Structures are given as structure tokens and as C-alpha cells.
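User: C-alpha cells for this one?
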Amino acid sequence: MAAKDDRVSEVLEDRDPNSLNQHVQIVWDDIIGEPEGARSPECAWRLSNACFSRARNWCYTALAVILAPPCALVLGCGFACLAFEQIWCTGPCLRCGKIYFASLRTMVQSCMAAIVVPTAEAVGHICRHIRVNFRRDAPDDKDMLVV
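Assistant:
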């Protein structure tokens, strides 16, 4: 029983183990900062900090208690629909396409090997002997290509 309680307390302690929400860790120092020349009295600074922290915590708690369960319900249903669609629709459709196009792929590969590869090799063999010389003192009236 103690091992189960330890696991539950671990889960409750680290509620963001994958650091998904680092960008919303907002504390007083991230929002308010008084420069050296403009300082409020110490009591106002401490009271403002306490008001900010408590208001943030109470408001978040109230919103979490009121809205988190319905949001969790909607998100759970949404991710369930997404998983269902991926498992029962998209995955099988992609697999069918892969099976259907396997023979077409083999035919296209054969045509490429029989037609395109020899043609490209022949053109490459011809183009291998082309030499282009660039001269600054060449006449401007016509292009010269030496083959």
C-alpha cells in the first residue's frame, strides 16, 4: 500500500514532467520590476507581491475547479476521436494505398530502368566532351560554344 501512495504522490508533485508549459511559469519578478530611480515603499511592494500571488493562485484554482473537468472531458473526447481516426481510418487507407501502388511502383521502376537511365547515360556521355571557354576579350556580337 505504501508503494502505491508513493507513486501517487510522485505523480501529484511533478504535474508537468515533459515541461510542456514552461512558458506560463509566471512569478512576480517576471511581471513587475522597479528600477533604481522609481521605488515604491517596502510595505507597498510586499503587499502588491502578496496580492498578485494570492490573486493568481485563487483565480487559477477557481478556474481549474470550475472549467478543468469540462475541458478535460472535451479534450479526452477529442483525442479519442483523433486516435480512432488514425487507427481505423487513416492507417488502413494508407496501407491500402501502399498495397495498390506497389505494382505500379514496380512498373514505373522498370520503365525508368529501361528508358530513362540509358537515355540519361547517353546524354551524359555526349555532354561529357563539351568544353566551354570564357574569354573576356571575345567579340560581343555572337556566342561561342566550342564542342
